Structure formats: C-alpha cells, structure tokens
C-alpha cells in the first residue's frame, strides 16, 4: 500500500498578546491509501487543527505535511487550493453548503472548478446515491440537517477525491440521522476506495475506523490499530 | 482549475447573487441619485453646447462685431467703413430714463442703434413690427420688465436725456440677452440719429461703441480678424465673430456646468461611501461561503473575481437606472436655469452623457467596493472549521492603501476634468479628504471615549444603547461619516448663501450710503450738490473721476512687455482704462500698507507720487519707488509709486486703484461722483425725478434696487444650487436608510435574543432609539462643526467678511437629522418587536 498522507514533526503555534500558544506539538504519523482513520481527543486537544493542516487548509509553524506525494508546506494558498480541488474531499460538522446554491449546484461546484463538462448527470447520480434525487433543486435552507449533510457528502465525493476529511460529521445530527449519515460515509468511501480521515470525540464512530490517533494537549498520545477489515463496514 | 474560467466565475456570481439581489440593489441605490445628478448635468451641458453652437449666430446677430470703449480715431474709421457688405452701429451706455406719465425714473442700458442689426435673429418685440419700425422715427423699444415696473403702455412717452421718445413696442428679447441681464440692466433701444440730441454723449461718459457687419457671401471671419488684429489692437478695438462668441459662451457655461457637476459629484461620493460600507457588511456575511469555496479549491483571486463581477453587474444596473432618472431630471434643468441662459434650450437624450454616467457609476462603485472586496483574497478556508485564532485582517492589507490612492486620484481627476484647474481640483480633493478624516477621527474617538469612560452606573437601557456604538458589527463609523458629510454639505450651502446675503445687506445697513450719482460734469458739480442738499439729503462724498491708461511701467511700453513674457506683467495692465481720482488725504476705508502718502504736489518739477491699491500693484507687478507713465486723455504724465494702500472694498463709497495727489489732474477732463443716503423709497424716487429733470445726463444707482436685484439673483442661483444639493441630501437619506437596514441583519438576532430573555417592546425600542440618537446627534453635530469651520474660512479668506451664523436653523437641522436617524432606526426594528421571537428566529433573516 502507498502512503497517501505523511505527517512529520508537525507543530502549530499561535502568537497571542505576549505569549505563544502551542496547539500542535511535534506530531508525526503516516496514513496508507484506502485506510479509514479517526483522530480523537477532548475539546481543545488540537484535533481539528491537525485536520486543517493535513487537508492543506492552514500552514504549519514547523514540520512537513505530504499529501499524495505533494509537500503542502512548500505551496502557497492558491496552489494548496488546487491540491484540495484535485485530491481532497471535505465533510464538516455544520455542513458548510453554499446557501445561495441549490443542492445540485453545490454538488457540481468541485467539478465545475476542474473545468469538467456534462457534469449534471454525474451530480444527480451522486444525489441519488445519498437519497436526495428529488431535492436536487432545493436550497440548503429548505433541507433538514441530515439532508444537508447528505448533500455535503455527495459534494465531497463528486471530485473523486483520494482522501476525505470529515470534521465531526455527525456533531449536529440526532442519533438516527447520524447512523444513516455514517453508513453513507463508509459505503461511499468503500465504493470509491477513498482514504477517510475523520475527527470526532464520538468513540463509537471512531471505533468504526481501522485506526485511531489520539491527540491530547497538542500531542499525539496514541496510535491504535483496530485491525478491522473494510468489510466490517457491512455491520451497518 | 489553472486558468481563470470567466464563464464559470460569471455563473457563480449570478448564482450567489440569487438570494441577495434585493439587498445588493439596496446597496447600489445609494449611487443612483448621484449618477442621475451627473447625467442630468452632463446632458444639459451637451445640449446647451449644441444649442449655443446652433444659436451663436442669433446671439451675436452679425458676422463680425468690432467694439471699443472710446470713440474710434479718424485714422481707423476708413477701415471700419470698408468692412462687411452691410453695416450697423450702436452706442451703448448706462443712463437714466424718465416716464413722464408717472414721473418714474430708473437707470437703464441705452442702446442707440443705426442700421438693420440684428442680421441673424431679431429684436423680439410686441408688436412684432416695432423691432424694425422704431428706427424710422423718434421712437423707442422698452424692455418688458421696465414696462411692467412703471406700468407703461405702447404709445406712452419715455424721456432719454433731453429727448422724449414714443414707446413703439415692448422689447421681449434682444440678441445675447438672458433673463438676468435684463433684470440687472434693462435695455431701451433708440435710433442712433437722436443720440446727439439727448445730450448724453459727453466727454468722460462710459460709452461702448459697437460696429456690426454682415457679409452677403461666406467669409472666413476668423482669418479676417487675424489679419486685422495688429491694427485693432493698436487702436484698442475688440473683435468678435460667431466662432469666438460660440467659444466664449461655451466656455463660460462649461464653468457653470462644471460647478454643478461637482455638486452632483459630492452626491455620488456620498453614495459611494454608502456602497463601500454596505459591501463591507455584505462581504463579512459572505465570509463563510467564501471559506467553503476556498476549501473546494477556489483560489483567492477567483473568489475575489466572483464578488467583483457581482458588484460590477449591480453597479451597472444602478448606473443605468441613475442615467434614466438623470435623463428625465434634465428636462427640469432648463426651467431652473432659464433666467441665466441666453439661448433656447432644446432637451434631448444625450447618449454621451448617458454613457459617461454609466461608466462613472460602474467605476466609482467598483473603486469603493474594492476596499472591502480585496479582503476576500485573504479569507482563509480555515474559517470553515471555525478555528481561525488570527482574525482575518480586513484593514491591514497594503493593497487597501493602493485603493485609497486610486480613489483620491479618481476624485482629483474627475474634479480636474470639470474645472480644468489643478489648484482647485487639489483643494476639492483635499477638502473631501479632510472632511472624511475628521469624521473618521471623530467616530474612532467616540468609540474610544465610550469604551474608556463607559458609564457603568447608568440604567441598563442607556448602557445597552451606548454599548451598541462600539460592539462588533457596529455602524458607528459609516453612519457618522455618511450623515456627517451630508450634514456638512447641506449646512455649508446654507451658510455660504447667508454670508453672501449678509455681506450685501451689511453694506446697505443704516448710516451707509445707498445712492450714487455719477457722470456729473464739472459745471454741474455745485448745482447737483445743492439739489441734493435742498432735498434734505447729505452729500457724503463728492469726488472727481478721470479716465486714464497706463502708458509705461518702469520705462516699458505695452509692446515691449508683450515681447518679453519673462517680465510677468500682463499686457492688460496697459489696455484697461482706469478711473482715478486726486485728493490730499486718505478716506477712512484706506490704510497705507507700504511707502508714504503724498497728498499734494506743490511745484511743477516735483516728482508726482501716486498711491496704488496693493492688490492692483501686485497684479501689475509694481512696487513702491517704481516709475509709471499715465496717459491722461492724450497727455503723458510721469509718476512714481509713492505708496501702496489697503482698501476696504466692501464699503459703499468710491474707492480707487490709483490716487493722484492734488495739483496734477485738476484741469484734466473729468466727471464727478456724488454719494448720499436716502431714508426711504419715496425720497429716492423724489431725488431721482429731480435729478433726471434738471440733469438728464446724470446716472443714479439706487443701492436698494441693486440689493433687490442681487437678492433675486442670489435666490435664482441659490435655487439652482439647492436643486443640485437636493440630490446629495436625498442620497444622504438613502445611505442612512440602507446603512440602518444593513445593520438590521446584524441587530435582529440580538434583539430577538433580548426578546426571548424577556425584554419588552418598549425596552427594545428604547435601546435602539438611544443608539441611533447617539449616532445621529454626533454625526450631524460633527457635520455642522465642519460646515461652520469651512464657512468661517470661506467668509474670512474668500469673501473677506465677518461670519456670524444663525443658530436657529442650525439647531433645526441638528434636531431634524437626529430625529430622522432615530425614526429610521426604529422603523427598522419594528418588524422584530411586532412578531413573536420564534417567528423571527424561524424565518430566514
């Protein structure tokens, strides 16, 4: 298996008024292509910062992040944006759909950005997969939280990403909806052969991945392999 | 996506605008009126220019006009007689007339005409034929305002000098005459053949000699004038052609339209500040969407372009609406300005003006929107995860300074294009900048003061209202700048008008002279003084006046000065006729600024030391000790500049640029001026009648009448300015309304929360009312202070008069604007307090 994400000595500090706040401290790990990984830890432990750095949303203060063989710390923001568009998919806790675009248009945006043509059937197909074919022309404000997150899922998979980052994907959903969304994430992930990195403080969700990285006080305190096969997703 | 896919960017801009269009339009509505004002002025200017071009022939009435302010010499007469295929001539001067029927008299402009002039257009008269037939007999055409004022009828008599004429017709319009010029100096046409008999053509009289020429076949008059110029210049003759009239008139109306365009431009600037503030709030709200797009791979430049396209689109739409409105408004301008115009205005759509307005609107909305828009480049995708510890800097971008620079350059450029004067454009730009900085400084200072000295002991409602001034998403800066600038502008216009009127009325106040008799001949001097005294009126001043010209300055003649431009002396110094006097002492309106006053010359070989007014001396580059030779009706008199005087020109009395000492000009041809004060209109009419009856050559200026005319004139000009200022005022209101409406989206959530926590309607209203009262009061107060300072500076340095502002209207403006701000703020919150909190929370606010 090839390494899709390689993190070496990653550190992130913020300059406050007179003092330096270290949010991530010398974190190192590597993730193989196709793996499912959970980053867990208590609030304020630095897990979301770690996700942001791994996905190229932010720049580290020190250390290296290599995504699909590309060193992100060497790139400027626009070049990282291109990497995100080509290789990365996102799912957020608060869905982060563009409120002025319909569900279909939200799914189409990453493809449009790549300059692809005849993308509508592809986007509709994705919406169909998440069970929202009938809501394609609705705006986010007209959808429930669960539906919004499903649109967000369809969008995340639209550009066929190599790696999918999910930040507390069920944090804003009730238990029943959460279960459906998580099943969809793992199903789509398995179908597409995508690497999944999810940040959560939900141990049950974390336990569905193959590997758990525990972060505490900005440090990686444990790297736990659950020895689960991808087939375990069939539990759902 | 490596390259910019413009089509996709446009598509995204369109998609993103879908749910914001009404708000975007609200933002851009601030510039609609500014564009409308400018398109109206530009269209009017172009139409006026076209009409001047088309009507220039009627304005001048002939192919060529040669004029002089003294009788032409015998040497040049053959030349004047040889020009043109058809010729007319006219003598024009100010004189008194008398209506024997009711003994009414008034100073008018007499035009003694011979020939068929005007060759183009006509003297518009009632009856129509009178414009031609009056020339055949002892008949006159009398301006319609005079006919009305003295209740005269066709067939009545009018006495001009010693001759009584029958009124052949009413003069409705003469070539080149505007409504205002007819009010200031109403014309009376008489046949030239009777001028001599009137006895008004005496030595020293201020008569303009005009020669009109018509060519039957087309002639290049411009070339002809160029050929004649050396001779004309030598004889101090002035030549005008249709082409030169077209240019001169066009230029003066360009000044007028340029000034009005600047007034309109202020409205546009005010609106643009509103646009900048609205877009700033809009972009802040778009932060999350932009961060999502950045997550999905949109580059900073692409995100910036998406919103730039939106702004350009909405700016274009706003400008088109403004241009349509402006084209409609321009139909009103000729009505507003008609008394100032010498031509008939035909109003049509000026596509050039429309294009300029739209272009200007797009550029200015883009420039001002750039300030908040360039921040988009710096919005991090990290905002999607809400872990941005470092706040996105919206103000620390160095590019912002570039945009500020561009805006200043744009203001300067536009002003320069309107005024074509670098200094004025720079002052205007600086003025706008200073006013802006003062208001920004005050807003920042206020926020700091409120924070620093927050009155913790005040009741909750007052504290909440006050705290809203500095809490996140406050509108303090933008409201203080927009309301403040609007108030400053409105008040300055008002103050300037009062300064002008006060300036004039002050001169006419009690104990100041109010009647001037001039053209008194040497032999009439004693008799006129006695007549005035016999009427029980004082002779406040009686001075001799001699017409002279400058022949040499420090040994240099006009020709030499013309050759050497490095001397810095204007040839005009030699060409202009000067009216000088002689006396042995200074008056109380004069002070010696430099040198020593010499009041008398005792011996013929003594150096004659003249005294010059300091401003005049500066203009002709002369200092104390310099030599000047004056041409006194043919006799050359060498003098030396003995002193420079500071003169208070605001006093109603005769003041002079040059004063000779006694013992030099006593024998020179001269006339006298007598100044008196009449207590009322009846005494004025009585004196005028007596003077006109006994001394028909003497002209009388009734200051009360001049004041009335000036008042009327200022009123007309004031109306034009107020009409244009109305655009700024309404724009200020639109900015105010849109700023408050924008803040609605920010304030609504917290008001709902307060409602949820148990605040009642009155409390919410009170908090809002207090917040907007603080804003409105401070902004309008600052605007008033700025306008007071500006008006004081104008009064002191430009009008050189005292400035005592009337406080009542200022107080009214202050209260009105504060109340309006509060009212708009309250209207805004009404939707929140009239509904249940749940209803508001559920709706997509």
UniProtKB/TrEMBL annotation, chain A:
Protein name: ABC transporter ATP-binding protein
Gene3D superfamilies: P-loop containing nucleotide triphosphate hydrolases
Database matches in SUPFAM superfamilies: P-loop containing nucleoside triphosphate hydrolases (SSF52540)
The keyword Repeat appears for this protein: no
PANTHER family in the cross-refs: ABC TRANSPORTER ATP-BINDING PROTEIN MG467-RELATED, LIPOPROTEIN-RELEASING SYSTEM ATP-BINDING PROTEIN LOLD
Transport listed as a keyword: yes
Domain ABC transporter: 5-235
Domain BRCT: 194-236
Cross-referenced Pfam families: ABC_tran (PF00005)
GO MF: ATP binding
InterPro entries from the UniProt entry: AAA+_ATPase (IPR003593), ABC_transporter-like_ATP-bd (IPR003439), ABC_transporter-like_CS (IPR017871), BRCT_dom (IPR001357), MacB-like_ATP-bd (IPR017911), P-loop_NTPase (IPR027417)
Transmembrane segments: none
Family of the protein in this entry: Belongs to the ABC transporter superfamily.
Key words of the record: ATP-binding, Nucleotide-binding, Translocase, Transport
Stretches assigned to coiled coil: none
Automatic annotation (TrEMBL), chain B:
Pfam families, sorted: FtsX (PF02687), MacB_PCD (PF12704)
Keyword Protease (UniProt): no
Main localization of the protein described in the UniProt heading: membrane
Keywords of the record: Cell membrane, Membrane, Transmembrane, Transmembrane helix
Sequence ranges assigned to domain ABC3 transporter permease C-terminal in this UniProt record: 262-381, 723-837
Domain annotation MacB-like periplasmic core: ranges: 25-229
Cellular compartment(s): Cell membrane
Membrane-topology descriptor: Multi-pass membrane protein
This protein's name: ABC transporter permease
Organism per entry: Rufibacter roseus
Source species taxonomy: Bacteria, Pseudomonadati, Bacteroidota, Cytophagia, Cytophagales
């Amino acid at each position: 298996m090839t390494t899709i994400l390689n993190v070496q000595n990653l550190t992130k500090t913020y300059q406050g008024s007179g003092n330096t706040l270290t949010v991530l401290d010398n974190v190192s790990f590597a993730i193989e292509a196709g793996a499912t990984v959970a980053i867990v830890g208590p609030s304020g432990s630095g897990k979301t910062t770690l996700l942001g750095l791994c996905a190229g949303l932010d720049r580290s203060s020190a250390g290296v992040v290599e995504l699909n063989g590309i060193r992100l710390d060497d790139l400027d923001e626009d070049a990282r944006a291109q990497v995100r568009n080509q290789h990365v998919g996102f799912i957020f806790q608060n869905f982060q759909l563009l409120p002025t675009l319909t569900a279909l248009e939200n799914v189409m945006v990453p493809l449009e950005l790549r300059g692809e043509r005849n993308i509508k059937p592809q986007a509709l197909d994705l919406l169909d997969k998440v069970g929202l074919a009938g809501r394609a022309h609705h705006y986010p404000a007209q959808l429930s939280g669960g539906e919004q997150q499903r649109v967000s899922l369809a969008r995340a998979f639209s550009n066929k990403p190599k790696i999918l980052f999910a930040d507390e994907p069920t944090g804003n959903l009730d238990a029943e909806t959460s279960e459906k969304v998580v099943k969809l994430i793992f199903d789509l992930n398995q179908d597409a052969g995508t690497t999944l990195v999810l940040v959560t403080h939900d141990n049950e969700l974390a336990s569905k991945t193959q590997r758990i990285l525990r972060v505490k006080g900005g440090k990686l305190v444990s790297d736990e392999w659950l020895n689960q096969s991808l087939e375990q997703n069939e539990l759902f | 996506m490596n390259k910019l896919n413009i089509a996709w960017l446009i598509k995204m801009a369109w998609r993103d605008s879908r749910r914001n269009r009404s708000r975007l339009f609200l933002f851009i509505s601030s510039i609609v009126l500014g564009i409308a004002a400018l398109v109206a002025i530009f269209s009017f200017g172009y139409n006026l220019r076209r009409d001047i071009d088309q009507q220039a022939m009627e304005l001048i009435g002939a192919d060529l006009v040669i004029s002089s302010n003294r009788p032409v010499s015998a040497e040049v007469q053959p030349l004047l007689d040889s020009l043109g295929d058809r010729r007319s001539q006219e003598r024009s001067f100010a004189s008194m007339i008398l209506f024997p029927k009711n003994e009414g008299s008034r100073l008018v402009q007499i035009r003694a005409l011979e020939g068929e002039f005007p060759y183009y257009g006509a003297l518009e008269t009632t009856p129509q034929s009178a414009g031609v037939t009056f020339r055949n007999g002892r008949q006159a055409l009398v301006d319609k305002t005079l006919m009305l004022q003295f209740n005269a009828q066709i067939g009545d008599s009018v006495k001009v000098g010693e001759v009584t004429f029958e009124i052949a017709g009413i003069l409705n319009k003469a070539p080149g005459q505007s409504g205002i010029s007819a009010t200031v100096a109403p014309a009376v046409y008489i046949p030239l053949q009777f001028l001599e008999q009137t006895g008004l053509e005496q030595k020293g009289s201020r008569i303009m000699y005009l020669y009109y020429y018509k060519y039957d076949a087309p002639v290049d008059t411009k070339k002809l004038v160029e050929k004649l110029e050396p001779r004309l210049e030598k004889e101090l003759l002035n030549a005008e052609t249709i082409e030169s009239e077209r240019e001169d008139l066009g230029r003066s109306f360009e000044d007028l339209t340029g000034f009005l365009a600047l007034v309109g431009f202020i409205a546009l600037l005010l609106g643009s500040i509103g646009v900048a503030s609205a877009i700033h709030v809009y972009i802040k709200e778009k932060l999350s969407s932009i961060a999502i797009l950045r997550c999905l791979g949109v580059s900073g430049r692409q995100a910036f372009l998406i919103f730039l396209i939106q702004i350009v689109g909405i700016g274009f739409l706003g400008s088109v609406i403004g241009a349509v409105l402006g084209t409609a408004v321009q139909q009103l301008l000729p009505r507003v300005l008609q008394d100032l115009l010498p031509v008939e205005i035909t109003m049509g759509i000026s596509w050039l003006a429309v294009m300029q307005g739209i272009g200007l609107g797009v550029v200015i909305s883009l420039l001002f929107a750039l300030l908040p828009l360039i921040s988009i480049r710096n919005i991090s995708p990290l905002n999607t995860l809400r872990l941005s510890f470092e706040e996105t800097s919206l103000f620390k971008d160095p590019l912002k300074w570039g945009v500020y620079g561009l805006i200043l350059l744009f203001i300067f450029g536009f002003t320069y294009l309107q005024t074509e004067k670098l200094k004025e454009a720079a002052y205007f730009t600086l003025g706008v900048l200073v006013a802006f900085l003062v208001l920004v400084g005050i807003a920042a200072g206020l926020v700091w003061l409120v924070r620093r000295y927050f009155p913790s002991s005040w009741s909750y409602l007052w504290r909440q209202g006050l705290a809203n001034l500095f809490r996140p998403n406050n509108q303090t800066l933008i409201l203080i700048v927009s309301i403040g600038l609007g108030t400053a502008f409105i008040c300055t216009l008002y103050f300037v008008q009062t300064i002008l009127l006060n300036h004039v009325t002050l001169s006419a106040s009690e104990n100041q002279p109010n009647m001037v008799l001039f053209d008194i001949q040497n032999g009439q001097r004693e008799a006129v003084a006695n007549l005035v005294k016999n009427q029980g009126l004082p002779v406040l001043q009686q001075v001799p006046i001699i017409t002279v010209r400058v022949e040499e300055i420090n040994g240099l003649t006009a020709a030499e000065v013309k050759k050497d431009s490095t001397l810095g002396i204007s040839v005009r110094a030699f060409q202009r006729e000067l009216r000088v006097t002689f006396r042995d002492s200074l008056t109380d309106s004069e002070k010696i600024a430099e040198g020593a006053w010499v009041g008398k010359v005792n011996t013929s070989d003594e150096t004659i030391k003249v005294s010059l007014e300091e401003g005049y001396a500066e203009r002709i580059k002369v200092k104390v000790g310099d030599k000047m030779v004056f041409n006194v009706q043919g006799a050359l008199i060498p003098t030396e500049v003995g002193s420079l005087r500071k003169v208070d020109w605001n006093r109603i009395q005769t003041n002079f640029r040059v004063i000779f000492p006694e013992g030099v000009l006593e024998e020179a041809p001269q006339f006298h001026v007598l100044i008196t004060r009449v207590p009322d209109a009846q005494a004025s009419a009585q004196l005028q009648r007596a003077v006109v009856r006994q001394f028909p050559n003497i002209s009388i200026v009734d200051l009360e009448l001049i004041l009335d005319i000036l008042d009327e004139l200022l009123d007309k000009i004031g109306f034009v300015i107020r009409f244009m200022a109305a655009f700024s005022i309404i724009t200020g209101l639109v900015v105010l309304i849109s700023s408050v409406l924008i803040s609605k989206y920010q304030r609504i959530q917290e008001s709902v929360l307060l409602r949820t926590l148990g605040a009642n309607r009155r409390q919410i209203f009170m908090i809002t009312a207090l917040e907007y009262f603080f804003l409105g009061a401070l902004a309008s107060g600052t605007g008033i202070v700025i306008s007071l300072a500006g008006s004081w500076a104008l009064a002191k340095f430009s009008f050189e008069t005292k400035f005592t502002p009337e406080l009542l209207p200022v107080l009214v403006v202050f209260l009105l604007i504060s109340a309006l701000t509060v009212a708009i703020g309250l209207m805004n919150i009404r939707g929140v307090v009239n509904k249940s909190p749940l209803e508001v929370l559920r709706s997509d606010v």
